[in-house]
Every structure is written in structure tokens, then in C-alpha cells.
Amino acid sequence: MVFTLKKYIALLTLMFLTFSVKAQEDEVTFEMAVSKEKLGLNERLRVDFTINRDGDNFNPPNFEGFRVVMGPAQSIRNSWINGVRSYSKSYSYTLMPTEKGTFTIGQSSIIVDGKVYKSLTKKIEVSAAVEDPNAPPTAESIADDNLHLVAEVSNNNPYLNEAVSVVYKLYVSNSIRVTNFRPLDSPKYNNFWSQDMPVKQYSAQEGTFQGKPYQYVILKRIVLYPQKTGKLDIEPLSLDVSVEVPTSRRDFFGRPLYTSTHKTVSAGSRTLNVKELPLTGKPENFTGAVGKFDFSVTTSKKALNASESLQASVKVSGSGNLKLFQLPEPSLPSALEVYEPEFDELIKTTITGMEGSVKNNYTIVPSYKGKYPIPSIAFSYFDPKAEKYISIASKEIVINVIEGPTNGGVSGSTTPSNRQEVVSTGSQFLFIKLSTTLQPKGNNYFYGSTAYLLWLLLPLILIPLAILFGKKREAIRGDVEGNKVKKANKLSRKYLSAAKKTLGNKEAFYVALEKALHNYLKAKLKIETSEFSKDKIAQLFEEKQVNQSTTDGFMALLKNCEMARYSPFSNVQMQEDYNTASEVISSMDKQL
Questions:
Q1: How many Å apart are CA 49 and CA 108, to the nearest integer?
Q2: pLDDT digits (tens, 9 = 90+) for 292-303
Q3: CA distance between the termini of the chain
Q4: Chain mean position to CA 217
Q5: Per-residue confidence (pLDDT) for residue 419, from 0 to 100
Q6: Is 16 exposed, middle or buried (0-12, 13-18, 19+ CB in 10 A)?
Q7: Of 171, 259, 271, nearest in space to 216 by CA
Q8: For helices 480-501 and 571-591, what crossing angle results, to 10°?
Q9: CB count, 10 Å around CB of 146?
Q10: How far is CA 186 from the centre of its chain?
Q11: Which regions of the chain are under pLDDT 50?
Q12: Which chain regions cross the lipid bilayer (predicted)?
């Protein structure tokens, strides 16, 4: 008999389905289920042992810590749905605890077709007696037992400026469902440099909590660098979670019905014990770098002419607190003209901390001919894993200026001893032209000329302009509000310039930066110092339709100015704040 291709495929599909159903029927499952995992001393516990095949010689466990009140009650369920047989056999016990504590219900066993099958164990926690032992558990109590918010800290005992990651996980058991959540109180990371790593998409993952299977979702990830030693607290994260929990009721198909409730969960406060960096072996040139780094000094060229330029780069790369230390500066000969360095960074933040590189690019212009060495530069950092300081020194680089004036000035030329007399031949000045082609010009008189008429009319033109200029000056003097705005704007630029000059001096820098921001607000929003409050400023920004990113940047600068009074700030942080201030003011100028 010849089969077509379609009939052949249909036959294979039918055979595959038949074998699948047979395999499912042959698979034996033997499970234990309990009515609750926590109960009072005066409550009862129901334990069910269920198998999907008919078996013999059922052997119950030793119910240590419990007294059997009823059981075993045996029940059998046998049904056919769409031609598929469903069978289950259960052995049920009702237990009463005999004392408080945590007890384990051991394995039970049963024999099916000559093979022994065993159930898993369960831990039961027995607490003090409850008021109403017959009352069903509330939705809130079920949510309490099956919902947990945990803050996982990578290192509870870090060094100063060592990276610490905090991951907030919401654990949910399989018996309840989470429909929504919203943060109630976000932690403030005082005394830490922090970098938030936003979670773009929430995805459930399988895990365990306190030895039990759970699903968890990562809600928040953040990397912290402690800026002080001693015990530092991480404030808790709190959430309001909408939960659906099962009830004792069932629908038409026997599935449990759910009820909704709200549950407030908190990750709890965590405390880090931050260690001081050791004094033993601490190099003199140590500027606070903590991590694992490489260090190099390179130049774009080593041979050039005077007045040409070259680029010298001082670079640190690796993993650690790349934004929180100062790069070493090269010591160059005075004959080399050096411009202010351009700072460049290429940093990404992962869950383990900052990675990448930072460097200063110097433009150097030699003035004189010669060879000029760039001496070796040393960079030191502390390796928290090795718990020791490491110093790296660059190699000496020699700059060869091939052509140009010497350092002592232009060298004098030597005069030969055998001078020759200069003989006049009478034709030494033949280069002077004796005959010319000059033509006489006609008589041009000033009177009646175009210039004469312009000078005559000039007073008539200047008098109206002088009147208009005077009125304009009077109007400017009378505009008190406008003059205040101009004065405040001028002061804002002045203090911003003063802040740039005091980079490296934390107190003077942030005082000048704060004055610059305040005077800028006076100039642009026309408010007085007495009205300065973050809520008021945010309200005015919203009215002026300033975009949110610019508003957040301005508020962050004000916050840093306040924190600078009691928190340490590095030179790199000051440079970042100054750059941010320039960008924010420029952006607000365009928007306002």
C-alpha cells in the first residue's frame, strides 16, 4: 500500500501523540501538601499525601512534635476528560502540635509496580496559641508569609572608597500573585557617592528564600562608594504592593478564588562598617585611588621643531573609584610651554563598580632647540583585595627639539681678522631711480567739496542722536528692576568665574558656586534671596517651562553646595559640578 506524504505525516503525528499520552500516564508523582506552614499551638494541621497511580504499602512518616487527631482518611478520584484518564489517590491526616518550635514532617513512601516512591519533607513552625484557632487565615497574614523585600549587599565591611553594590529583590511565593507595586520611601545614600543602575524591564526569575522555592524580581540596583569611615546606614526601601491571595472558596471548575489586598514591605535598614585605609605603606603621592589600575604617560611625538606642538597624556585605566581621585601632574622643564590640561573620561558603571579610564591631555610647545626630559611620574593606589598600596612609575620621555633658537639667545657671529677695504666705484647707488614719471595733480579745494558738506551737516545729525541717547540713559536709570537683574546677572558670571579659580579649595569653590546660582536665579526669575526654597524654585521652573533634565541638574547643584559643608568632595567632583553649572546655565539661557 502506497501512502502519500500527507498521510505519512498524519500517521507519525498520531503515533507521537499516542506515545506522549502513554508516557504521561506512566509517569508517577507522589507529593505531600500541608494546609499551612505556620500555626499556633492550639491550631490543627492537615497533611495530604497524593499519588497519581494506584499503589500499595503506604508508609506514613513519624509526625514528631505532633499528635495524630484523625487519619489516615483515604480518598480516590478517577475521571475521564476528552478521552484522557485522570486518577489520584490521597491519604489525609489531621495533626495537633504538642509543643512550640520548628518541626520537620519526614518522607512517606508507597510501592507502585514493585518500585518505591517517596515524598519530600516539609518544615512546620509552631508558635504560641492564637485567640481563634478555627478562624481562617486573613489575606494580610497570607501576604505576610509569602511576600518579602530583601536588600542584598555585596560587602558589609568595605574599605573607604571601595565599591559596594546593593540589589533590591522582591520575593513572591507561587501561591500568591503580585499585580502592582509603587515605592513609598526611596533610600537616601548620605555619605556615599552613588550611581543608580536603572532596571529597564522587570522579569521574574526562579530562586529560593529561606530554603523555600520563590520567584523574585530585581527592582533596583545601585553602586555605592563610601566617603566616610565607621558605621554608615543605608536607609530602607519601602513598597506598597497590590497582592492577590487565594481564599478557601472554589469556582465551578474547582480552581481557588482570589481576593485582593495591599501589603507594605520594607527591605530594612542596613549598616556598613567602613574601614579606614591603612597608614602602613601609604605613599606620599597617594590621592585616594582605590581599586585596580594601570598607569601610563605617552606623547604624540618625541621629535619636533620649536614653536610646534605635541600632546602628552597622563592616563589611569582599570576598575575602581575612577571619578573620585586626582591624576598626578607632570613636572616639565621651564623651556616647554604647557597649557591647561583637557580632562577626558571613558567610564561605564556595572554592578561591580566603575570601569574605564580617565586622562589629562596636555598641549606642550617648546620654545628653544635642545633635548628636554619629561621625568618619570609615579601613581599610587590601594588594592582592597590585596589589602596593600601599589605604586606604578612611568618611563622618562625625552623631547628632542631639532630646530629653533638656543636657550641662551641668538649666538653672535664671529668677525674674520683679514678685513678688506670697501672701494667706491661711483655706481654703488645705481638702485636709486633718478628719472620718474610723476604727473602734477590739479588744485582740489576743500570749500564746496563733498567732505565740506558732510562736516556742515554733521551737527544736525548728531543733535537728535544725542537727545535719543540721553533719554535712553534716563530710562535705564529709572528701570530699578532691570538694573537689579543686570547687576545680579553680572554677579552670577563673576562668582562662576571665581568658582573656577578656586577649583581644589572645597569651601571657597562651593561658596562661590552657590552665590553664582543664587544670582542667576535673581537675574532670570526676579526673586529675592528670602524666597529661595527648592519648592519655590521648582514651581517657577515649571511655570517657565524649563525641561525636567535641566531642573534636576540645577537642583542637584544646589544640593551639592549644601552637602559640601559637611561631606568630603574630590577635585574631580568639583570639576564635574563646575561643568554641570556651565551647561545648566547655558541650557536655561536658551529656554528662558
A1: 8
A2: 999 999 999 999
A3: 88
A4: 19
A5: 34
A6: exposed
A7: 171
A8: 150
A9: 21
A10: 15
A11: 1-3, 19-25, 409-431
A12: 445-469
Single-letter residue type at 397: I
pTM of the model: 0.51
Asked if residues 216 and 172 have their Cβ atoms less than 8 Å apart, the reply is yes
Type of residue found at 257: L
Which of 281, 302, 299, 277 has its CA nearest to residue 290? 277
Lookup: cell for 44: 490543627
- CB-based contact 194:224 (threshold 8 Å): yes
443 three-state secondary structure = coil
| Helix or strand run (H / E) with residue 151 | strand 147-153
243 contacts 143 by C-beta, under 8 angstroms: yes
Q: Specify the residue for cell string 537728535.
A: 464
For residue 376 the three cell numbers come to 618619570
Closest CA to 226 of 345, 353, 355: 353
Rounded to 10 degrees, what is the CA torsion of 152, 156, 158, 164? 10
CA distance 88 to 54: 8
The 3-class SS string of 5-65 reads: HHHHHHHHHHHHHHHHHHHHHHCCCEEEEECCCEEECCCCEEEEEEECCCCEEEECCCCCC
Nearest CA to 574 out of 494, 493, 488, 501 is that of 501
Q: Which secondary structure element, helix H or strand E, spans residue 145, and what is its range?
A: helix 139-146
Q: Which of 541, 558, 519 is closest to 592 using CA atoms?
A: 541
Tell me the pairing of strands 397-401 and 303-304.
Answer: parallel
Judged by DSSP in three states, 320 sits in strand
Tell which residue, 75, 241, 287, has the closest CA to residue 146.
241
Do 178 and 147 contact (CB within 8 A), yes or no? yes
Helix axes 450-478, 480-501, angle to 10 degrees: 90
Residue 40: predicted pLDDT: 84
pLDDT at position 136 is 65
CA distances from 330 to 185, 266, 333, 336, 556 (A): 48, 51, 10, 12, 33
Count of Cβ atoms closer than 10 Å to residue 485 Cβ: 16
Distance, CA of 155 to CA of 272 (rounded, Å): 8
Structural domains of the chain in order of their starting residue, each with its CATH number: 28-133 (2.60.40.740), 140-274 (2.60.40), 291-401 (2.60.40), 480-591 (1.20.120)
Q: How far lies 71's CA from each of 74, 76, 90, 105, 528, in Å?
A: 8, 15, 11, 15, 82
Distance set, CA 270 to CA 152, 156, 168 (Å) = 9, 9, 12
Structural contact between residues 185 and 236, judged by C-beta atoms closer than 8 angstroms: yes
Which pLDDT does position 584 carry in this prediction? 78
Q: Angle between the 506-525 and 480-501 helix axes, to the nearest 10 degrees?
A: 160
Residues 313, 298 contacting (CB under 8 angstroms):
yes
Write the CB contacts of 534 (distance below 8 Å, at least 6 apart in sequence).
555, 558
The one-letter amino acid at 98: T
How far, in Å, CA of 314 to CA of 378, rounded? 11
CA proximity to 193, closest of 323, 359, 319: 323
For strands 212-226 and 192-197, give the pairing.
antiparallel
Helix axes 506-525, 571-591, angle to 10 degrees: 10
- 410: its cell numbers: 641668538
pLDDT at 325: 93
DSSP string, 257-283: EEEEEEEEEE---EEEEEBPPPSTT--
